[in-house]
Design brief:
280 residues; alpha/beta; 4-stranded mixed sheet; 25% helix
Length: 280
């Protein structure tokens, strides 16, 4: 496999829309979502990036599926962190620490804003310090940097997939789009599609180990939303053969077994793994 030259090109005009909250707790705000652990939701004061007026938005500190039956649905919709200003109707995208705890799917994910630009060793040392007192050691523990990745962790487990292999699919898709001149910020797994007929799908990359590539058209398709740096979203898919190739990489690199500690697997990690294949 050739070296992957994917990169996370940044267009600041898009990221100016993202407000990393330096928030002030104001009061408990439970009218939007009802749960048995009301401390998981509270209010925070936000300054609208459009009209600069202040308003109170909802902050969800924790998505615990055992205590909140609606948590997966709210996380899937991805609207809770994009409040609409009551003054001008403009949307502001928020980013703040949060958690996703799903014992049924076997995953706990912690959102650490801007984790990519922080001291990872210090963060993981802090998170892993208290693992010995946690009762459930069968849980996979992950660290993510945004709400899109938090929801992605849920979807991956709902489809019974390996999250490291899913991450390794991203450079294959993004590299193809970048070769067409598109500037990509990131991509996130959305769904697993089971084609009813063996027909080639649009906006889909097919890998094949056989001479007759048409046989790959009937395989499962891993669907991603690819986010461009200008804010556009492009749905794009890749077939199961590619996923199996990535699973082989995960196995060969020793990532198959999970040690129960917190780990951060993202696009940058996947690019580094692909590039390291040339060094082996």
């Amino acid at each position: 496999m050739s070296s992957c030259n994917c990169h996370n090109a940044v267009n600041l005009s898009y990221f100016e829309q993202l407000l990393i909250i330096s928030f002030k707790e104001v009061y408990l705000l439970n009218q939007l979502h009802t749960m048995r652990n009301p401390w998981s939701v509270n209010g925070l004061t936000v300054q609208c990036r459009h009209c600069h007026q202040s308003f109170t938005a909802q902050r969800i500190n924790c998505f615990d599926t055992l205590l909140w039956s609606e948590s997966r649905q709210v996380l899937e919709e991805l609207t809770f962190f994009r409040p609409v200003c009551p003054h001008c109707q403009g949307m502001t995208e928020l980013l703040y620490p949060s958690r996703y705890i799903d014992a049924e799917l076997g995953v706990t994910a912690v959102l650490v804003p801007d984790i990519e630009n922080q001291d990872a060793d210090e963060q993981f040392s802090y998170l892993n310090r208290y693992l010995g007192i946690l009762s459930n050691n069968c849980i996979q523990r992950r660290v993510v940097g945004n709400f899109y990745a938090l929801a992605e962790q849920m979807r991956i487990r709902q489809h019974g997939l390996n999250d490291r292999a899913v991450q390794l699919l991203k450079p294959l898709i993004i590299g193809s789009l970048q070769s067409r001149g598109l500037e990509v910020w990131n991509g996130f797994f959305m769904n697993l599609i089971h084609p009813e007929t063996a027909q080639k799908m649009n906006d889909t990359i097919y890998f094949s180990t056989q001479e007759d590539q048409s046989k790959a058209y009937g395989e499962d398709i891993y669907q991603f939303d690819i986010y461009l740096t200008n804010g556009d979203i492009i749905p794009h898919g890749i077939n199961d053969t590619a996923y199996q190739i990535c699973m082989n990489i995960v196995d060969a690199k020793g990532f198959m077994e999970d040690d129960g500690q917190f780990h951060h697997y993202d696009l940058s990690w996947a690019i580094n793994v692909h590039n390291s294949l040339q060094e082996d």
